[in-house]
Amino acid sequence: MRIIEVKDYKAMSKKAAETILEKVRTNPAIILGLATGNTPAGTYANLIEDHKTNQISYKQVTTFNLDEYIGLAGDNPNSYRYFMNDILFNHLDVEMSGTHIPRGDTKGIQEECQLYEQLIENYGGIDLQILGLGSNGHIGFNEPGTPFDSKTHIVNLTDSTRKANASFFDKQENVPFQAITMGIATIMRSKEILLLISGDKKKEAVDRLLHGDIDESFPASVLKRHPDVTIIADEAALAKA
Ligand code: GLP
């Protein structure tokens, strides 16, 4: 894993956007894996800013998001589909049909998992996967204990994850209890991974990621087995490492 240390959230967002832009310029039909949460929001804002001035086209780009809450339809403001449209897709010239997010509002969730996994395969896999890091080491919604060979699956969210994500909802009770997420094996099949980490709240997780064992009790530790991972982390996140 390569580590790029930057000053703060702003610098992380800028560096991450530059990295993504460079890849899109080289491969305009790139398959991008995208993440939600506060961490990549600034990166997406930078991509939008760049799009306004440089007019890099995203028409041929395909995207796959990591996860979605179960029970929320795409027009629910708390769904990740809504979040991604609002924060990124609606501001680029991306073809909406080329943006994929697991459906959380279908009755056949089990089937949706298989279809999503298959769709990624059909596209030949993800070229560049953007990841955030949960404070308990989760990636996507793969909570501690998730098998490293897992594919897209249904998860029960831990209390700590529901609490951490509650700020996006009116009340914590409204945070769904389950989600659909790419599995750890799905993420690991990406050709390249960009892990973004910012802030004091992540410093213990970063310490464990860099110095701890590779173990299913800390999902992100699997990334040490991937041949092409870049971490962009800010000073606060690296404070303990
Ligand atoms: C959520 C998302 C993850 C994200 C994590 C960290 O659980 N499913 O993909 O990486 O939160 O969120 P944040 O970036 O807001 O700290």
Automatic annotation (TrEMBL):
InterPro entries: Glc/Gal-6P_isomerase, Glucosamine6P_isomerase, Glucosamine6P_isomerase_CS, NagB/RpiA_transferase-like
GO BP terms, alphabetized: carbohydrate metabolic process; glucosamine catabolic process; N-acetylglucosamine catabolic process; N-acetylneuraminate catabolic process
An example molecular function term from Gene Ontology annotations: glucosamine-6-phosphate deaminase activity
Naturally occurring in which organism (per UniProt): Peribacillus cavernae
Pfam families associated with the record: Glucosamine_iso
Function: Catalyzes the reversible isomerization-deamination of glucosamine 6-phosphate (GlcN6P) to form fructose 6-phosphate (Fru6P) and ammonium ion.
Database matches in PROSITE patterns: GLC_GALNAC_ISOMERASE
Keywords from the UniProt entry: Carbohydrate metabolism, Hydrolase
Pathway: Amino-sugar metabolism; N-acetylneuraminate degradation; D-fructose 6-phosphate from N-acetylneuraminate: step 5/5
Gene3D superfamilies the record matches: 3.40.50.1360
Name listed for the protein in its UniProt record: Glucosamine-6-phosphate deaminase
SUPFAM superfamilies, A to Z: NagB/RpiA/CoA transferase-like (SSF100950)
EC numbers: 3.5.99.6
PANTHER family from the UniProt entry: GLUCOSAMINE-6-PHOSPHATE ISOMERASE
Active site: 67, 136, 138, 143
Family of the protein in this entry: Belongs to the glucosamine/galactosamine-6-phosphate isomerase family. NagB subfamily.
Cellular component, GO annotation: cytoplasm
Top-rank taxon, per record: Bacteria
Catalyzed reactions: alpha-D-glucosamine 6-phosphate + H2O = beta-D-fructose 6-phosphate + NH4(+)
Domain Glucosamine/galactosamine-6-phosphate isomerase: 10-226
